[in-house]
Amino acid sequence: MVQRDLALLEKHGVTSLDDLPPEVQAVREGHVAQSDAFAYGLLPADSQDARKLPPNNGYTSKVRVLDRYKVIGFISSGTYGRVYKAVGVNEQSGEFAIKKFKPDKEGEMIQYTGISQSACREMALCSELSHPNMIHLVEIILEDKCIFMVFEYAEHDLLQIIQHHIQPTRHPIPASAIKSILFQLLSGLLYLHTNWVLHRDLKPANIMVTSKGEVRIGDLGLARLFYKPLHNLFSGDKVVVTIWYRAPELLLGSRHYTPAIDLWAVGCIFAELLSLRPIFKGEEAKMDSKKTVPFQKNQMQKIVEILGMPTKAKWPGLVHQPEFTQLQSISSAVREASQGNTGLESWYWNTLKSTGYPDSPPSANPGAQGLDLLAKLLEYDPAKRLTAEQALQHPYFTANGDRVTANCFEGMTTQYPHRRVSAEDNDIRTSSLPGTKRGGLPDDSLTGRPTKRMKE
């Protein structure tokens, strides 16, 4: 048993049990289900508890990243590290995105303290998951105690596409393109949920689109396995999902959240594709020095302004939410929305009028079925919110015999610009340096966007 464990740990580049994330240490101590250990790759693939997922791509520790790839330049950076564009050399071919996880202390001598929880999750899950609408992990390279994750290269993301339609003059994304994007996004999400994985950070910047119009879900750094019966998922990550896409049950402090949080985020993304602006653009209240998660009053206010105040009649579990009493602090001037889609319909048409095109062109109008799907994705009660499978069967996709294309760019005349790459910054061997979080976008394109997710 000990020898097998040591071999598995060495495979993951873990040199000490102290390097393991808390969840994995808990597995060894018998405190949590073995299925979480499988997600970290600490159980063999033929284990009785192993999920039925594609084979692991494997980890490579005896090659150097520059022996396999030529780095073209820097794309973006964030809390995790930096992403570079590269092309394959020798036996590799094509374009790739290489994510380099930064050391714990930048600018100092690198002290290897283990693999971060986020990196561990992303490496393990990306190695096991395989679907046409998931970003494809090519390989993981461990070089000089630095981790490099090599992904297929996607030329666009939804944030970049939305920004293109805003500047210089606002012009809507065609309805056929939105329908294709949404269908592909839901297909990838159904695959995740079928394999008991919550993404927990869906937002436009994390949804990639290839040059062929194929949608890929990316960034699994906050993804987690979930269970039935549900385990408490709050203690490991007190803050999940970027604030504008955070479901009301999370805002109200729910500990036992479900895949419904991802469907709420999909609804927010759908609305943003329709209107070219975030539907619930609140301001995030930060944690205090004691790491206490505050009630996100402003964000909840933005939701209530459009959907109306949630009620016990419409959401029976509302009274059991830890922050239920905080709802009294929401402005009393906001009235309860009428039954049906009235609140969202008003929001949609008012948004169009305020953004320069009062009459939505027929090619961009989602129609009654599109607004109905949006309303059912933005349902307050997570138990009533559509699942990914139910959403894919909605008449928005199936009525009139319309074919949903697998290429969201099909029939479009718009030419989206290539992702910006800084060719001057192409030394992947240096430690991470400060940089823009979205190197592929103009500097002013993210003004007012929420900060990168927070982890505990």
From TrEMBL:
The record's catalysed reaction(s) read: [DNA-directed RNA polymerase] + ATP = phospho-[DNA-directed RNA polymerase] + ADP + H(+); L-seryl-[protein] + ATP = O-phospho-L-seryl-[protein] + ADP + H(+); L-threonyl-[protein] + ATP = O-phospho-L-threonyl-[protein] + ADP + H(+)
Q: Which SMART domains match?
A: S_TKc
Lineage top rank: taxon: Eukaryota
Would you tell me the Gene Ontology cellular component terms?
Answer: mediator complex
Q: Which cofactor does it need?
A: Mg(2+)
The cellular location(s) given in this protein's UniProt record come to: Nucleus
Q: What would be an example GO MF term here?
A: cyclin-dependent protein serine/threonine kinase activity
Q: Where is the Protein kinase domain?
A: 69-397
Protein family: Belongs to the protein kinase superfamily. CMGC Ser/Thr protein kinase family. CDC2/CDKX subfamily.
Q: How does it assemble?
A: Component of the SRB8-11 complex, a regulatory module of the Mediator complex.
From the Swiss-Prot or TrEMBL record, give the protein name.
Answer: Serine/threonine-protein kinase SSN3
